[in-house]
Design brief:
By secondary structure, the protein is mainly α. It is built from ten helices and no strands. The protein has helices at 2-53, 59-67, 73-98, 107-110, 127-148, 158-177, 183-193, 196-200, 203-222, 231-249. It is globular.
């Protein structure tokens, strides 16, 4: 249960830090500030809960890891449930704080950082543009996660790579969709906004999962296979070591 709870907490931090920055401080820090809020939140969580759960905090990442057979179906399912719960709780807290301003805050009017396309896109981008952007940018994220956390990757730098790529992703796509690349991040605010946010939510679930599947496929092609030693090779190596030891003893 510790790793599931870690995923819940990690997703809470990501959504509260990212969506909170957009809703509570967006007019002061702009798109770049929001992008760095998401990236820094993820970077911090990689080093905080990474040793416990692997720090997926994103159903698309979990799906990509599942496709590469680095996690089982049971754990993947529980991860996704924990991630969605963490995102919902975070969105609730952001809304509760936002309501503290004079005149209050109405989620269906203010948007609560929900993802959208068409009239609900910051730049008025259409559905097809939003769909393609979410697929491509989720592929960037999941491919980076798979590569940076591989056993052959430099130790200790995964958080930096993953945090920076999420920052890059937001710099590109905030004007397009408010940036999802994470179904849990989209579900949380959408439940409180309702209406159009629920109606458009499908895109921010389907597109990231497609992007994750593409990333898993690409990584399977480009990854260098682990070297495997047969039993006979191991026996020969052991025999050679024993002979060397015998020579030194003599």
């Amino acid at each position: 249960m510790k790793k599931y709870f870690a995923e819940l907490v990690g997703t809470f931090v990501l959504v509260f830090g990212g969506v909170g920055s957009a809703v509570l401080a967006g007019t002061h820090i702009g798109y770049m500030g929001v992008a760095f809020a998401f990236g820094l939140s993820l970077l911090a969580m990689v080093y905080t809960i990474g040793p416990i759960s692997g720090c997926h905090i994103n159903p698309a990442v979990t799906f990509g890891v599942l496709l590469t057979r680095k996690i089982g179906v049971k754990d993947a399912t529980m991860y996704v449930i924990a991630q969605v719960l963490g995102a919902i709780v975070a969105a609730w807290f952001v809304l509760a704080i936002a309501r503290g301003i004079p005149g209050g805050y109405i989620a269906s009017v203010g948007g609560l950082g929900a993802n959208g396309y068409g009239m609900h896109s910051p730049g008025l981008y259409g559905m097809h543009a939003a769909f393609h952007a979410e697929i491509i940018l989720t592929m960037f994220l999941v491919l980076t996660v798979l590569g940076a956390t591989d056993i052959k990757a430099p130790v200790g730098f995964a958080g930096v790579a993953i945090g920076l790529v999420l920052t890059l992703i937001h710099l590109v796509s905030i004007p397009i969709t408010n940036t999802s690349v994470n179904p849990a991040r989209s579900i949380g605010p959408a439940l409180f906004v309702g209406g159009w946010a629920i109606h458009q939510l499908w895109l921010f679930i389907v597109a990231p999962l497609i992007g994750a599947a593409i990333a898993a496929g690409i990584y399977a092609v480009i990854r260098t296979p682990d070297e495997k030693i047969t039993t006979r090779q191991a026996e020969r190596a052991l025999g050679s070591q024993q002979q060397e030891r015998g020579k030194h003893t003599a």
